[in-house]
Amino acid sequence: MSLDAKKIRQDFTILDQIVNDEPLVYLDNAATTQKPQVVLDALTAYYHEDNANVHRGVHTLAERATAKYEASREKARAFINAKSTKEVLFTRGTTTGLNWVAKFAEQILQEDDQVLISIMEHHSNIIPWQEACRKTGAQLVYVYLKDGQLDMADLQAKLTDKTKFVSLAQVSNVLGCINPVKEIAELAHEKGAYMVVDGAQSAPHMAIDVQDLDCDFFTLSGHKMLAPTGIGVLYGKEEVLNLMNPVEFGGEMIDFVYEQEATWKELPWKFEAGTPNIAGAIGLGAALDYLSQIGMDAIHTYEQELVAYVLPKLQAIEGLTVYGPQDPSQHAGVIAFNIDGLHPHDVATALDYEGVAVRAGHHCAQPLINHLGISSAARASFYIYNTKEDCDKLVEAIIKTKEFFNGTL
Questions:
Q1: Is 357 helix (H, G, I), strand (E, B) or coil?
Q2: Is residue 284 part of a domain?
Q3: 192: phi > 0 → left, psi -120 to 50 → alpha, else beta; which?
Q4: Distance, CA of 11 to CA of 41 (rounded, Å)
Q5: Which CATH number fits the domain that encloses residue 270?
Q6: In Å, how far are 150, 163, 206, 245, 307 from 183, measured between CA atoms?
Q7: Which of 293, 322, 346 is the last residue of a domain?
Q8: Which of 22, 201, 244, 310 is a Cys-bridge partner for 391, taking CB atoms 3.0 to 4.6 Å apart?
Q9: How far lies 47's CA from each of 50, 90, 153, 276, 279, in Å?
Q10: Parallel, antiparallel, or unpaired: how do β-strands 114-118 and 163-169 relate?
Q11: Is the dihedral angle over the CA atoms 386, 391, 396, 398 positive or is it negative?
Q12: Please, are residues 40 and 290 in contact by the beta-carbon 8 Å criterion?
């Protein structure tokens, strides 16, 4: 199935605007994606027609809201190929999911145990593990890089019988490399460790099959894949989720409350305390429908075509350094770069004057940024509505920015 980006753009009215007297080129998709009209319509329809709390009421609106909410859970199950909706927990996003897993780790970790992560992880996949290790006396061990990618030899050397959890991003939000999490999960399981996958940058861009990956946990954020903010999914194998204690307590997740103790509902509801983000879940369901109609394999193929087109053009700019794999075939649609002598914030501001929206900073990956020997970087990230014309505008804007600053130095 081919992907027509120009046709897709018509579903995103926000892209049809002028920024600083220039047509908008939105290349900050790793931070958050824009929302198609069908997602906006789903949110509006819920609030206009079905607004009610879920699971608790027997009136018509409550039943309709509950049906839509749980239908979205089934869509999420199908999207990642979980065995059952019991394995699909709605969260606020990837950060929440990783925090829940790290809390579970606190039930298991003991002094001298180890948690294995990589130097490229987002802070959301570092700090929860720092806290879990601090509380339990376990050791947090980092895997480092080779040629802009995960050093698999280093990983295998550091993966031992003491390793209880391995937690890695499937796609780096800075380097753009795609980590072989299926292979790593097999290695982790051989040592008796749980495999945790941060799918924030992979689930929006490629087909995900958690059974094929054989990961124990997989997290994703809706807002990075066309859905509203504040909604995400934590997948966990049913037998593992049954071992986990709830993180939050209160309404919705209880079965029965006695004066001195309580019992919990079955999966997945035992983890979903309080009134959930109903509209967000419904919006996520609409986004998953939209992506599934396009086809995740088609999306991945198209983005690889964009990277193959733009990466050599960026590499050809004198004084521009691209981080991560230099081979386009090994690079996802996230490209972090720096220009000699220019601060990334100045670069991002100058690109904004040309209508090109990119990110600048440490990208919530300070250990990686420090490891690379830099203070920050600019980052362009692509999605289904970006075109080769967008790529050309990025390159032109970078060259114009470079010439402008060189003329003022």
A1: strand
A2: yes
A3: left
A4: 11
A5: 3.40.640.10
A6: 13, 16, 17, 29, 25
A7: 293
A8: 310
A9: 6, 19, 52, 14, 8
A10: parallel
A11: positive
A12: no
Looking only at the bridges linking them, the beta strands covering 139-143 and 114-118 are: parallel
Place of tokens 């720092």: 130
C-alpha distance across the termini of the chain, in Å? 49
Secondary structure (DSSP) of 276-299: --HHHHHHHHHHHHHHHHH-HHHH
Contacts of 185 (CB under 8 A, 6+ apart): 166, 195, 197, 213, 214, 215, 216
**Strand, helix or coil at 251?**
coil
Domain end call among 293, 312, 339:
293
Q: Beta strand pairing status for 25-26 and 356-357? A: parallel
Average pLDDT for 89-99: 98
Assigned token pair, 160? 């031992």
Task: Quickly list H helices, 316-360.
Answer: 344-353
Distance CA 220, CA 397 (A): 32
Spatial separation of the C-alpha atoms in residues 83 and 87, rounded to whole Å: 7
Bridge partners (DSSP) of residue 378 are 337, 360
Eight-class DSSP state of 206: S
What range does the domain containing 315 cover?
5-27+295-408
CATH classification at residue 16: 3.90.1150.10
> Number of folded domains in the chain?
2
d(CA 341, CA 339): 6
pLDDT 10s digits, 34-49:
999 999 999 999 999 9
Which amino acid is located at 118 in the chain?
A: S
Q: Are residues 136 and 110 in contact, defined by beta-carbon separation less than 8 angstroms?
A: yes
Active site residues: 364
Residues 317-361 pLDDT 10s? 999 999 999 999 999 999 999 999 999 999 999 999 999 999 999
Q: Residue 367 in 3-state DSSP?
A: helix
How would you classify the pairing of strands 359-361 and 377-381? antiparallel
Q: What is the pLDDT of residues 254-306, one digit of tens each?
A: 888 999 999 988 899 899 999 999 999 999 999 999 999 999 999 999 999 99
Query: What mean pLDDT, rounded, does the chain reach?
Result: 96
Cβ neighbors of 277 (< 8 A, separation 6 or more) are 90, 92, 228, 230, 231
From CA 338, how far away is CA 29, in angstroms rounded?
Answer: 18
**296: Cβ–Cβ under 8 A, 6 or more apart, which residues?**
205, 206, 207, 208
